[in-house]
Amino acid sequence: MICIFGGTFDPVHFGHLRPALDVQQALGIACVHLLPCRVPPHRAAPLVTAEQRLELLQLAVADEPALEIDERELHRDGPSYMVDTLESLRTAHGDEPVCLALGMDALRGLERWHRWQDIPALCHLVVMHRPGSPWPQQGTLADRLSSACVTDASALEKQPAGCVIGFPVTQMAVSSTQIRDLLAAGQSPRYLLPDAVLNRIRQEKWYAN
Ligand code: ATP
After folding, report:
1. Ligand 1: does its nearest atom lie under 6 Å from the Cβ of 80?
2. Sheet harboring 164-167: ordered strands across?
3. Mutation to probe ligand 1, out of 47, 105, 167 (largest number of atoms < 8 A from CB)
4. 61 CB within 6 A, ligand 1
5. What atom of ligand 1 comes closest to residue 129's alpha carbon?
6. What's the whole-number average pLDDT of the chain?
7. Domains in the chain, please, with CATH?
8. Are 66 and 32 in contact (CB under 8 A)?
9. Is residue 11 in contact with ligand 1, taking CB distance under 6 Å?
10. How many CB atoms lie within 10 A of CB 109?
11. Pocket flag, ligand 1, residue 207 (CB < 6 Å)
12. In contact, 191 and 166? CB cutoff 8 Å
């Protein structure tokens, strides 16, 4: 079983890393693949380049074999649509189960994703609870999710795609926005992200106004 965790990682922080490790352990798989996007299609452009975000991600997971980096979106031109990424994984891995880990806030915006209706046929959704983001209760997305929900992670191994499971990962009210804001204000975001990442940001004066 493969699990990817896509994001802008602008910059990576402990709210990405600890939940990703929780998911890896809950699924009992060797690693989760962190997948930085090149051009996020559904939000403002990142403040640093894709190469700089990748470098920070590499520093963050350097000594953690359970978190690997998948660079496929960085090598693709145009908007980094998740559906394209999932189709490339499906081509490479046939019927092997593929999980897409995403935070609850990202799930709530799923209907805005390019070809979102095609995504359940390509992967399972592993939804990480996030402070401040409740499970969607009404509408097309809520209906679609409720019919696919499972509570036992072993169900994910029995079919290639199509299930939705919620995980109560470690709750960390940290966001990249908070870190960017602190840095822009000349304040310290220490203890919200790995020291190696922060040291590099400071060295290069990234995110400073
Ligand atoms: P920004 O503040 O710039 O919007 P972010 O902190 O939400 O960034 P992203 O890189 O946009 O980080 O998020 C990538 C993925 O990680 C998304 O699926 C998001 O829901 C999830 N995620 C980010 N922070 C957390 C967190 N603290 N807890 C759980 N999931 C998170």
Report:
1. no
2. 67-69, 32-36, 2-7, 98-103, 124-128, 164-167
3. 105
4. no
5. 29
6. 95
7. 2-204 (3.40.50.620)
8. yes
9. no
10. 14
11. no
12. no
Q: Per-residue pLDDT for 64 more than 90? A: yes
**Amino acid found at 187:** Q
Calpha distance 11→68 (Å, rounded): 16
> b vs e for 29-58, b when ≥16 Cβ sit within 10 Å of the residue's Cβ?
bebbbbbbbbbbebeeebbbebebbbbbbb
Please, which residues bridge with residue 153 across strands?
none
Q: Mutate which of 5, 47, 176 to test ligand 1's pocket (most atoms within 8 Å of Cβ)?
A: 176
8 Å CB contact between 169 and 183: no
In sequence order, what are the beta bridge partners of 100?
Answer: 4, 125
Ligand 1 atom closest to Cα of residue 12: 10
Q: How far is the CA of 175 from the centre of ligand 1 (A)?
A: 6
Rounded to the nearest angstrom, the distance between the alpha carbon of 105 and the centre of ligand 1 is 8
CB 127 within 8 A of CB 136: no
pLDDT in tens, 7-30: 999 999 999 999 999 999 999 999
Q: Which region, left, alpha or beta, applies to residue 64 given φ > 0 means left and ψ of -120 to 50 means alpha?
A: beta
Contact 79, 41 (CB under 8 A): yes
Q: What is the pLDDT of residues 86-118, one digit of tens each?
A: 999 999 999 999 999 999 999 999 999 999 999
The residue whose two tokens read 């072993």 is 154
